[in-house]
Amino acid sequence: MVVPRVWKSVNGLIRSVAVCSIRTYLGFALRTTRWTFRIDPQSYLYLTSQEGRTAVVAFWHEVLPLTPALWWWAERQNPAVSLRVLVSRNSDGRVIADVVAPWRIWSIAGSSDTRGKSKGGAAAMRRMRASLLHGCLVAITPDGPCGPRRQTRRGAEALARFAGRPVIPMGASCSGIRLKSWDKMVLPLPFGRGVFVSGAPVWPAAVTDPEQETAVSLQTHLNTLMDQAAREEQPRTGEHSVVLRPRATCPSRVWKGLGVLLAPVLPLYLRWRQVKGKEVAGHVREKMGFPSCPRPRGKLLWFHAASVGEALSILPLVQACLRQKADINVLVTTGTVTASQIVAQRFVHDRVVHQFMPLDVPRWSQRFLDHWAPQVAIFTESELWPTVLGACHARNLPVVLVNGRMSASSFRLWCHLPGVARRMLEPFAWVSARTEEDALRLRSLGAVTQFMPGDLKTAAPALPVDEPELARLRAMIGARPVFVAASTHAGEEEQVARAADIVRQIHPDLLTIIVPRHPERGADIANGLNAAPRRAQNAVPTPDDAFWVCDTLGELGLFFRLASCVFIGNSLPGCHGGGHNPFEPARMDCAMATGPLIHNFEEAFQALRGSVQVVHDDRAMAAWVGQMLASPEERIRMGQQAQKVATVNETLPDDLAKQVLALVW
């Protein structure tokens, strides 16, 4: 048993060396050749996938080594172009597939069945048709894989008819040598000249028995184009030749190298975070790309949402995808513990799996993608990690960005790294920004394909609530007015407490509920409020308690429904600042106030202008709370106005889900 294993390892090593050597030589020869492209105007639209056009690209088997240059040219015209090439299932075909795969040329294995022996032709035909219908070009050699030379077989024509797409005939020639193979294959030489010539699109004839006529027509086209290419390698007067290279799939080699260097110490960092309570025991290895559960069978959508806000924003989109397509599964990844808890509470579905996102380390990202193998990756807001995105692009995995956010400060930062931003964003299948301003910034950085902008946070359903618990708390609180300070950060609770003390001079029965953004701070907050009761300890406020610290997760829907008015935290001077999502309380017609530091949600607050009061300190907050309690009509008006704005994009999740699912095949 040992000898066969050793022999297999030696064969594998020899094959790897051969593949690497062929790729190195071929890449060098093609990159140093000066190429001229003479493309029919109509064929240009198909070869560059303009407006989603796709076609069957046909060329003789002898010029197969030249065709990567054609794909590099097509990617220059449209970075979102996607390519598939038909190769045979034999060993030679698999070598070809491995040689070109790092250039984002993906193979479909199979060839025509012969002598009653199945060679995967029918399955390959179905996969090629699916590729064409889902926005990929498909390349095929009508005389491959074994000839006769320059004689078409019916595969290209049958595929075109099956998919309802045209055939683009291509001819090519370059400085090279002819091999003594059945097809007299051209091996390019470095520092030469080459030319690609395309014919007009050829549509399969819609007649009763069109095979013979169409085959001869395609064969004639290909031979004519080959003769023309052989005569015209030199550029014509006024015509420019170009030197091409494959598009880099790694957005930043510096960032990738940094990840490699830090990889040995990052496990220690993760363990330290676990000790600090910032990682979940038993799930730390997920951040190194190790899965903690098996992959669901079938098709898989991967959604990534870094933290709580992003996770809640994609909930309606996930639900829409599951509702529209019953045979897909969903993987949701998050970066924080609190976001994972929200997923566990809100994403309850037998087709949803949660994992932590691996850190942006090359080997860890590859391990993650190898195991989960999603059909589409959906990133949220500003989650742009160069290494994992590069790994997705290298696999030709469709990537989309929903609720895309690009703040002015982030935009200025990325403008200093335009190449990295372009290599990350150009290959995205599409981007849906939150606002027109975000869309403009993303487009200027390289997001060439965009879907209609819209904020998913205005399309989310109202936060859930435990109805029996709501009824119990309402009965317990009675007629007391309730002021909720939601998602507060360090430095804000003291100002909220001072504001509540001022209001109680006029409304002595006021109950102030403080909901810290990070529940682990609950004990310290309660101690600073004369040992106020904590919900994490199942304590409830008595009539004598002025404050109630609700240091739990996933219950904001409960507290917003109890509230007379709501202050949105992370917004007062003295804390980090940036604000939080105002649409959550707005959907429950809450009267709202915020501090001035709202740059993370500036567009949302701008949409709600007139419905949200800005307060700069404890006195201004106290004045606003007093006004809301004294004027119920004004409080109701502000709440209803905010609710109308917060529910304006109710159809957005279904529209985005259709676009996402169109990429699944």
TrEMBL record:
<protein>
    <recommendedName>
        <fullName>3-deoxy-D-manno-octulosonic acid transferase</fullName>
        <ecNumber>2.4.99.12</ecNumber>
    </recommendedName>
</protein>
<dbReference type="Pfam" id="PF04028">
    <property type="entry name" value="DUF374"/>
</dbReference>
<keyword id="KW-0808">Transferase</keyword>
<feature type="domain" description="DUF374">
    <location>
        <begin position="82"/>
        <end position="149"/>
    </location>
</feature>
<dbReference type="Pfam" id="PF04413">
    <property type="entry name" value="Glycos_transf_N"/>
</dbReference>
<dbReference type="InterPro" id="IPR007507">
    <property type="entry name" value="Glycos_transf_N"/>
</dbReference>
<dbReference type="InterPro" id="IPR038107">
    <property type="entry name" value="Glycos_transf_N_sf"/>
</dbReference>
<dbReference type="InterPro" id="IPR039901">
    <property type="entry name" value="Kdotransferase"/>
</dbReference>
<feature type="domain" description="3-deoxy-D-manno-octulosonic-acid transferase N-terminal">
    <location>
        <begin position="283"/>
        <end position="458"/>
    </location>
</feature>
<comment type="pathway">
    <text>Bacterial outer membrane biogenesis; LPS core biosynthesis.</text>
</comment>
<dbReference type="InterPro" id="IPR007172">
    <property type="entry name" value="DUF374"/>
</dbReference>
<comment type="function">
    <text>Involved in lipopolysaccharide (LPS) biosynthesis. Catalyzes the transfer of 3-deoxy-D-manno-octulosonate (Kdo) residue(s) from CMP-Kdo to lipid IV(A), the tetraacyldisaccharide-1,4'-bisphosphate precursor of lipid A.</text>
</comment>
